[in-house]
Each structure stands twice: as structure tokens, then as C-alpha cells.
């Protein structure tokens, strides 16, 4: 599909109707989704919403910068009146009672929401195999996973169902599937985008962000979604950061940090080469390459898999089979809770609830949760130090290429290890983005760029430059 920027320009100028764009998108879903299982549902209002945009344009109204752009939501973001299951059985019949703030803002800018994307249950996973509704498939090789947890969203963009999809990223769930599907995925700074109407997974880590083919498109969508929202106390007043005067393709003088801890012995040599080739492009264009160290990085995964389950266990407490969704009645109230949660939640969700409850329970929380929180502070300090010497950090997004469906499913630890390069940015609350940087055996590789808190601008600048000198993002599955 065309980029969001081109679609909006065409629709605004009357060259195309929003309806024709949305029909093209729905046709692509109709013919491709059976094989890929990227979308769990299409919104029945999409055509009518598009016609409304066309009517308003015909009446001379300015409908906004996303005029007629089809957008796929992740199945954990509320769109009033639409099913919203978070990939879970426990919410298989749940319809959203109100709109998330991102829904409201995207529509106010003229976007047409077309459907909801498959995901790992409650966004826990790295392959989309934890969905109650079956795995999504990678369009580059349908026998392989698309990554996760926002796998369905990534597939929707990579397969040309829509130019934009939203994901949520708690430990890598936007960047990792973007890398494995060969597209752009941005996790904004914690607080940049309102989470009102996003089903909470880990409240100190979750952020909503876009998938797109180009960095320009991701930036456009961020411009619409970001900013303070009275409905989310953690959303920030931080200014958007005006696009710098420097032309978008200019990285002369930009300091690019390369952390030695991210390029270790034993890592996939092909991925290492793709990422270092990308770094060389920056150097060639006059960027300064700075070797840096993030000494606490090796503890990030361990800290994440204490903090994340702990917060998840707490947030998932609300699903009791009485107020929400799936319900299974027992002889006693306790038995009803046990049955509803036992049958409604999948295996990985139950594993995290047990793990999270354990590490935060009396007598253990000092040894686990509190210690992990201290490690988190050290990780944050590492980045603060590093960003004194560089403006962006370049690293791999994923330690492996898209793997065969089923390969890691029975081995949670190897699944967790696939998050090794992404969880630090969430723990440190910094913005990070994955950009396609090559192919190995026909499978995409992602370059991860990280920046200071609220400095998404440097990510856009670096990402736009990189896409202007490479064509990996132009290849389609
Ligand atoms: N893969 C990570 C996990 O399973 C990250 C998930 C996410 O970012 N939502 O927790």
C-alpha cells in the first residue's frame, strides 16, 4: 500500500476518495488474512467512516493530516462498540464501552480505523503464539513467527493491509515484530502517548506506538497521537520537539553510540554484520561513531522478568469472571474465581501471574522485586551516562531472525531471551525505534536506534537519513 503521507495528500486534494482507499485495504485483508491471521476482526463501520470523510471533504472541511488513512489497532486498545479481546479467551465476548484516547485522536485527524490485530494474550510473548486465536504468520515466510506481542499489527503493515498499525511495547512488542517483519516500529518515551483505553499490562513500562513502512509515516502518526491527556496521569506535558532545521537526511555531526555489550561473542554473525553495515552508513555521511558501554545491560532481562510479571499480576487481578468476560461458575465464590481464571487465561499468562505474585510476596519482594527495581535505576544511569557522549545509540533489535512457528513455544526461557536487546529501553523509559537494515536468507533484520527521553526527534532524523540511503524498507513480502 501507499504511504500514509501519500494517501492523506491524495484524499485531501480530491485525487482519491477515502472510500476507495479503505476498500483497497479491506480487499487486501479479505484476500490475505486467511493465510496470515493478522487481524481478528474488521470494524463494520470502516466504509461508513470513510464516506463521512469524503462528505466532509466535499463540503470543504479540513478533515486532518491522516485523511482517509486506514489504520489497524492492536486488540488491546478500546474502540467503542467493537470487540476487544487482548488475544485472550477471558475477553472473547467483551465489547469496548468507550474509546481509547488514541482512537479519538486518530479519528479526529481523519484516519479510518479498519480492524483489530492479533496479539499474544495480554501482550505477553515474543511470537504471537500465545494468542487464544492462533498464531499470526510472517509474510516473508508463513512457516515462521512474525514476532510479538504486536505480531498481528506488524504483519498487517508488512503484508500491505494498511499503511499504519498501532502496537503496544512493554519490553519490545513493537520493535521486535517490526524487525522480524521488515518494517518500522517506534516505542515512544514513557509518557509520550496516552494509555487511556489501553489494557494495562505493566503500568511502568507500557507505551503505545506506530508501525509503518517509513519513518516519515511513523512521525506523522506520532504527531497526532502524542501529548498530554487528562485521562492518563502518566502522560507528559513535554513539548513535541520541533523538527530541527537540519534537513531530514542530514546526520553530519550526529554522535552515534555503539554499545559494546550489544555486540557480543556468539551473537548471530549475519545480524551483527547488517547492523554494523548500517552504522557504517552513518559514518560515511559524517556522523561521529562513539564506542560506548552500558555495563548493567546484562542484568536488564532478569530485572524485566521480575518487574513485568509483578505489575502484570496486579493489573490482571481485575479479570475475575464476574465483572468482565468469560465466566465459569463453581460451587463456591473461590471456585468460580479459580475456574474462570484457570479456563479464561492461557498458560503464559498464568505463568506470569504466578511468577509476579511470588516475586512481590512478603518475604520475597526484597530479594526480587526491590532488587530488580534497583537494577532498573542502574540501567537508567547507564543510559544517562552514555547520552553525555552520544545522541543516538545503534544496536540490533532482535538477536535472531524470525524463527519457525513452534520452535520456542515450549521453552519460555528461550522465548524470554529473544527480548534481550529491547527491554532496556522500557526499563529506562527512553524512546527506541526499529528500522529495516537488511535481509539474511530472505528474512528481515532490524536496526534499533535509541535516544534520550523525549528526544524522538533524533530518532526521526537518524531513521530518515538511513532510509534515504538504503532501500530495505522498499522491499515487500
Ligand atoms: N516479549 C516481552 C514479554 O513477553 C515484551 C512484551 C511486550 O512488550 N508487550 O513480556
Describe this entry's structure for a reader:
With 477 residues, this protein is of the alpha/beta class. The chain has a domain of 247 residues: Amidase signature (AS) enzymes, CATH 3.90.1300.10. Helices cover 38% and strands 13% of the residues. It has 15 helices and eleven strands. Strands 1-3-2-4-6-5-10-11-9-7-8 form an eleven-stranded mixed β-sheet. α8 links the parallel β7 and β8. α9 crosses α11. The chain is globular, with a radius of gyration of 21 Å. The termini are close together. The structure holds glutamine.
Round the Cα radius of gyration to an integer and report it.
Answer: 21 Å
Coarse structural class? alpha/beta
Instruction: Report the top-level CATH class of the domain at 4-250.
Output: Alpha Beta
Molecules bound to protein: glutamine
Strand content: 5-15%
> What is the strand arrangement across the widest sheet?
1-3-2-4-6-5-10-11-9-7-8
The CATH superfamily of the domain at 4-250 is Amidase signature (AS) domain
CATH architecture of the domain at 4-250, please? Alpha-Beta Complex
Q: Give me the count of strands.
A: 11
Distance between the termini: 12 Å
Stated plainly, the CATH topology of the domain at 4-250 is called Amidase signature (AS) enzymes
Amino acid at each position: 500500500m501507499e504511504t500514509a503521507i501519500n494517501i492523506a495528500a491524495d484524499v485531501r486534494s480530491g485525487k482519491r476518495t477515502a472510500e476507495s482507499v479503505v476498500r483497497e485495504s479491506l480487499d487486501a485483508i479479505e484476500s490475505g488474512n486467511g493465510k496470515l491471521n493478522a487481524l481478528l476482526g474488521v470494524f463494520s463501520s470502516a466504509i461508513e467512516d470513510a464516506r463521512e470523510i469524503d462528505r466532509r471533504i466535499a463540503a470543504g472541511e479540513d478533515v486532518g493530516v491522516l485523511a482517509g488513512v486506514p489504520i489497524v489497532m492492536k486488540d488491546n486498545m478500546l474502540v467503542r462498540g467493537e470487540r476487544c479481546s487482548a488475544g485472550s479467551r477471558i475477553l472473547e465476548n467483551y465489547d469496548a464501552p468507550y474509546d481509547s484516547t488514541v482512537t479519538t485522536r486518530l479519528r479526529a485527524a481523519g484516519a479510518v480505523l479498519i480492524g483489530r490485530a492479533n496479539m499474544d494474550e495480554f501482550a505477553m510473548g515474543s511470537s504471537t503464539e500465545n494468542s487464544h486465536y492462533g498464531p499470526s504468520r510472517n509474510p516473508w515466510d508463513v512457516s515462521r513467527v512474525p514476532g510479538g506481542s504486536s505480531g498481528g499489527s506488524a504483519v498487517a503493515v508488512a503484508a500491505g493491509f494498511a499503511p499504519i498499525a498501532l502496537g503496544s511495547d512493554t519490553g519490545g512488542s513493537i520493535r521486535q515484530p517490526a524487525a522480524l517483519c521488515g518494517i518500522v516500529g517506534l516505542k515512544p518515551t514513557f509518557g509520550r502517548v496516552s494509555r487511556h483505553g489501553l489494557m494495562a499490562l505493566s503500568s511502568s513500562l507500557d507505551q503505545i506506538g506506530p508501525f509503518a513502512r517509513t519513518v516519515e509515516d511513523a512521525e506523522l502518526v506520532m504527531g497526532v497521537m502524542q501529548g498530554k491527556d487528562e485521562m492518563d496521569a502518566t502522560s507528559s506535558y513535554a513539548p513535541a520537539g520541533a523538527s530541527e532545521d537540519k534537513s531530514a537526511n542530514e546526520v553530519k555531526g550526529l554522535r552515534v553510540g555503539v554499545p559494546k555489550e550489544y555486540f557480543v561473542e556468539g551473537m548471530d554473525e549475519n545480524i551483527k554484520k547488517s547492523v554494523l553495515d548500517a552504522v557504517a552508513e552513518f559514518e560515511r555521511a559524517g556522523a561521529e561513531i562513539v564506542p560506548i558501554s552500558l555495563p548493567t545491560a546484562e542484568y536488564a532481562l532478569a530485572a524485566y522478568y521480575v518487574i513485568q510479571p509483578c505489575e502484570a499480576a496486579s493489573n490482571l487481578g481485575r479479570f475475575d469472571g464476574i465483572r468482565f468476560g468469560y465466566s465459569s461458575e463453581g460451587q463456591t465464590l473461590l471456585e468460580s474465581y479459580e475456574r474462570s481464571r484457570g479456563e479464561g487465561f492461557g498458560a503464559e499468562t498464568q505463568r506470569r501471574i504466578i511468577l509476579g505474585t511470588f516475586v512481590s510476596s512478603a518475604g520475597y519482594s526484597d530479594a526480587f522485586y526491590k532488587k530488580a527495581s534497583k537494577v532498573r535505576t542502574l540501567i537508567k544511569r547507564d543510559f544517562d551516562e552514555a547520552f553525555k557522549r552520544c545522541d543516538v545509540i545503534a544496536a540490533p533489535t532482535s538477536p535472531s531472525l524470525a524463527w519457525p512457528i513452534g520452535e520456542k513455544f515450549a521453552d519460555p526461557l528461550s522465548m524470554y531471551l529473544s527480548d534481550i536487546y529491547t527491554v532496556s529501553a522500557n526499563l529506562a523509559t527512553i524512546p527506541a525505534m526499529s528500522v529495516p537494515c537488511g535481509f539474511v536468507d530472505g528474512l528481515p533484520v532490524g536496526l534499533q536506534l535509541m535516544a534520550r527521553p523525549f528526544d524522538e526527534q533524533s530518532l526521526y532524523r537518524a531513521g530518515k537519513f538511513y532510509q534515504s540511503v538504503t532501500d530495505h524498507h522498499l522491499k515487500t513480502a
